[in-house]
Structure formats: C-alpha cells, structure tokens
Design a protein that fits this description.
With 444 residues, this protein is an alpha/beta fold. It has a domain at 97-122 and 230-409: Rossmann fold, CATH 3.40.50.1100. 39% of the residues lie in helices and 13% in strands. It has 17 helices and 13 strands. The strands form three sheets. It has a six-stranded mixed sheet with strand order 4-5-13-10-11-12, sandwiched between helices. The chain has a four-stranded parallel sheet with strand order 8-7-6-9, with helices on both faces. Strands 2-1-3 form a three-stranded antiparallel sheet. Strand 7, helix 7 (184-192) and strand 8 (196-200) form a beta-alpha-beta unit. Helix 6 (157-169) runs parallel beside helix 7 (184-192) and helix 11 packs across helix 13 (328-337). The longest helix has 17 residues, at 126-142. The relative contact order is 0.12. The mean pLDDT is 95.
C-alpha cells in the first residue's frame, strides 16, 4: 500500500465532507456539489521540488510498469490508492508538443505550440482520465466490491476511451451515444472494443440524464467527467507540458471546452505544481467554446455572475455540443483563479482555422479548430504579446473526423465557405496536362 493518501472531498470548503476513493459517489451527499480528489500535501511536501522533478523525468517514457505512462509516472500525485498490478494502462500521455513554427511565422508570433493529445491510444485526451477511472474500478473489484459494469454518455471520444480500457481490463462497458450525432470513426471504436452501445434518439444532455439515472439505480459505475477521478488523469497534461519545456511555464494555454472538466483539470495540475514548488507562476487560460454550444461564454460576458444552460445547436465540433456542462462550477472557479478568458468560434471560423493550420503540417479535429479560431480572434484583439509562449491543446486526432475534413475540402459543409479548400485535380493520363498542372500549382 502506498505511503501517500488521497480522498474525495466536496468542492465547497465550507461543507467539508470527505469520502474514500473506493466509494461509488459523484456528488456530496450533504450539499449536492461535485467532488474533487484531494491529496495529503503534507506527505507530498516531504520530497523537495527537485526530487519530484528528478523522479518524474527519470520515469518519463521508460518501460517500467506502470511508470512509463505519463499519467502513472506521476502516480503519487494522481491516484496512489491503486496497486501497480491493478493499473490499466495503454502507455497514455507523453504526446507530441509540436512547435508550430510555420503557422507562428504566418501570424507574427514565434512561440506557438500544439499539444497533440490525439496522438494517444484511442486518439484523444480522454485516455488520460480513463486510465485512472478504470484502474480504480479494477482495484475496487479486486478488493471485493461488486460493480457489474462501467457506463458513460458520450459524443464519441469518451466512449472510445472507456471501451478500450474496459476491454483491456475485462470489465463490461456500456456507452450511451446520441443517435446520428457522432462520426463513423467515433462510433466504430466502442463497437470494435466490445462495448454495449446504446444509440439514443436525443442529444448529449439527454444521454447524460439517462446514464446518471441508470448508474444510480443499478450500482453501475459512472465514467463521465462528473466523476472526479477522470480529472486526476487529465491534470497531468499541465505537468507534462512543464516537463516538456524543462519545467518552464507557458504564458497561455488555449483549450476547447464542452462538459468543462478539461479546463478545471488544467488548472488543478498547475496549482499542485506551484504548491509543491516545481513552478513559481501560473499561465493564463483560455476556454474556447463553439458558438452553437456556448453557455460558459455567455456567463463570461456577465463576469460569471450568473450561469444558464442552453439548448446546444448542431455544431461541427460535436464533442463539445453540450448545453448543460456538469463541471461548470469547477471551470468558473479555475478561470477566476487563472485570470482566464472564454472565447467562442462560429462554424465558419472553426472550420477555416482547422484547415489553415493543417496546411502547416498538423491534422486537427474540429474541436481543436474551435481553440485555434479563439486563439486567432484573441490575437487580432492584441491579447497576446508577440513573444508570448502559447500552447493550444489539440484534443483529438483528425482521423476521427474524416467526414468533417472531406466535407470541408469538397465544399460540402452546410453554411461554410471553404476558404482553404484543396480538392483533387482530375486529369487524363497525359504528360503535358500533368506537368502543366504541377507547375501552375508550384508557381502559386
């Protein structure tokens, strides 16, 4: 058993309720607020900042179970409760931090980076949280608890991660998907990994309502980000970013937001590093929302004094087509602490931004397009200095959204003019026609 301790605690400090990590609980029984995982910081402070940095660096990308995973390489900070033999890992994390040099030069900034979280086992950042959650379920079952299955509502990426990690662990997985609202690639992942896929004639918010009801009444474990174990894995993005920059802190981080667990996870990682002395400043955070699903943006315009859910409209960024995000209170708390900004992107803006940056060598999902579009809008408003180091979090791999990519370049996206379309040129097998076309293209 680990010498380090962690537990669930109500996010309302005045409430003060705490619960064991092996309890099946998502909200405080006393006040109804969300929970968060808290660590015994006194124990963690027994190691110096230099000792933690050295330990994490020595484990990074090594084949030593389970610490080669960039999540479990920070196990003491993430979930010390799980014994090594019950960790369910796919070597997640350690994803490419891509220097977007050419894109930066086009817009007059020198230090722009894309954190390519889609270069992960199931193609999205959701793997970071799911490895923790499924590992805890495996530990609980090893300890004798009866958990018949694990379930989630999803617009695609969460379901893929849950299905893969449960398949690896031999745990039944149940996925609630909104019918006809996920890409083919996102649908085929949980199907291939053997999950029970329930396609409901509703939107994500409707699926979320149903999965909570089913889990609560049947002791099925809930895997959505309302479960704060997910946040523990996702917060390692912050630690890994600093690690990849030799423990320097970027000036800004831009991330798309739907259910809003990701923005609070980012903040949690940075706050933990600062408290333990690994860093001495915090970045500013930007949460980017699709204009068609923008309740946090609407709240930001009113200084977060009030928040109202919205009925999310159809958006190309379907994974963040969420009008009633469960982690909104955590997100607002984080944005206030980090002097954060919320920006939105229209369908035209997100599609063009993804295509523009793809032309410099990346392959971005539409949700990353939302973050890129928000970044470009803030850059035009001179929010950033030319010398600022900005990291844009790319949340999923573009190959999961080939319909979006094809639709853009073939001019088939409803309501979108494809400014950067690059269509195949159809030619006869004629040397002169081919060479003429090649050199016309080169001369442009």
């Amino acid at each position: 058993m680990s010498e380090f301790r962690a537990w669930f605690a109500c996010i309302d400090d005045e409430c003060g309720e705490t619960y064991s990590l092996d309890e099946i609980i998502y909200r405080c029984r006393k006040c109804g607020n969300l929970l968060e995982v808290r660590h015994d910081m006194g124990q963690l402070k027994e190691k110096s900042a230099d000792e933690w940095r050295e330990l994490f660096d020595n484990r990074y990308r090594k084949q030593s179970w389970p610490h080669g995973s960039s999540v479990w390489g920070k196990k003491e900070w993430v979930c010390p409760y799980v014994e090594d033999e019950n960790v369910v890992s796919m070597y997640e994390g350690a994803t490419n931090l891509f220097w977007a040099e050419r894109f930066g030069s086009q817009i007059g900034m020198e230090d722009i980076w894309l954190k390519m979280c889609g270069n992960s086992h199931t193609g999205s950042f959701k793997d970071l949280g799911m490895t923790v959650l499924v590992s805890v379920v495996k530990q609980m079952t090893a300890d004798g608890k009866s958990i018949p299955a694990v379930a989630c509502a999803s617009t695609g990426d969460t379901s893929a991660a849950l299905a893969a990690y449960c398949a690896s662990a031999g745990i039944p997985a149940i996925v609630f998907l909104p019918k006809d609202k996920v890409s083919v690639a996102q649908l085929v992942q949980p199907i291939s990994n053997g999950a029970l896929v329930l396609s409901l004639d509703t939107d994500f918010d409707g699926c979320m309502e149903m999965v909570q009801k089913v889990c609560t009444r049947n002791n099925i474990y809930l895997a959505n980000s309302i479960n704060s174990l997910r946040i523990e894995g996702q917060k390692t993005i912050s630690i890994e970013l600093c690690q990849q920059f030799d423990w320097e802190v970027p000036d800004w981080i831009v991330i798309p937001g739907g259910n809003l667990g990701n923005i609070s996870a980012l903040g949690k990682g940075f706050l933990m590093m600062r408290e333990l002395g690994l860093i001495n400043k915090l970045p500013r955070l930007v949460c980017a929302q699709a204009e068609h699903a923008n309740p946090l943006y609407q709240s930001y315009l009113k200084n977060f004094e009030e928040f109202h859910p919205v009925k999310a409209k159809k958006t190309l960024a379907n994974a963040i087509q969420i009008g009633n995000p469960v982690s909104v209170n955590k997100a607002i708390r984080t944005l206030r602490e980090f002097d954060g900004i919320v920006e939105q992107a229209s369908e035209q803006e997100l599609a063009d931004a993804a295509a523009l940056v793809d032309k410099t060598g990346t392959f971005n999902c539409p949700h990353t397009g939302v973050a890129l579009a928000a970044f470009l809008k803030l850059k035009e408003r001179k929010v950033f200095k030319k010398s600022d180091r900005v990291v844009i979090v790319s949340t999923a791999h573009g190959l999961k959204f080939v319909e979006f990519k094809i639709g853009y370049h073939m001019g088939q996206l409803e309501g979108v003019f494809s400014k950067y379309a690059n269509r195949p040129v159809e030619l006869p097998p004629d040397y002169d026609a081919i060479t003429e076309t090649i050199f016309k293209s080169i001369e442009k």
